[in-house]
Every structure is written in C-alpha cells, then in structure tokens.
Amino acid sequence: MSALLNFFRSEHAQRAFAEVRAEARAEVRAESVLRVLNTRGLEVTAEVRERVRACKDLDLLDTWLDRAVTASRVEELFIDG
Q1: What is the mean pLDDT of residues 48-55?
Q2: Residue 79: phi, psi to the nearest 5?
Q3: N- to C-terminal Cα separation, the chain
Q4: Among candidate residues 43, 29, 31, 35, the one with its CA nearest the CA of residue 73
Q5: Is residue 44 domain-resident?
Q6: What pTM does this model have?
Q7: Is residue 42 assigned to a domain?
Q8: By residue range, what is the domain housing residue 30?
C-alpha cells in the first residue's frame, strides 16, 4: 500500500494528473464555445467543430469563447488565431 501511495505522490504521477486535468479543462472549454455558437443560432460546420475540439490552448479557447458571445459569423472566432 505504501508503494502505491508513493507512486501517486511522485512527481511523475503529479505531472500526469496535471496533464489530464488540463486536457479535461480544454475539452470543457471547447464544448462551451460550441454551445454558445449553437445557442446563438450560428451555423457550426463539421470543420469548425473539429478545429475547436482539437484546440488544447486554454488561452485561445478563452478568446474564442469571448468572441462566440458577440460574433455575427462563426469565422470571426478565428481572426488572428
């Protein structure tokens, strides 16, 4: 039991857990972007959906989420990024 606890406390395990948490946050953020666009009645193509879901950059996803609130066209999300 002690060896198992030591593993979970190890730097390697903590780094792995941090990566998983970051990926989960990115997935949630991407789905939020898509939800706002859909709620606003903007057409979300399969290409746009894939691009948003593939993004793992939380700062960029935050920018896209902010833009999704006011964009008149989905393409406005991707201006300069």
Answers
A1: 97
A2: -65, 125
A3: 48
A4: 43
A5: yes
A6: 0.79
A7: yes
A8: 23-78
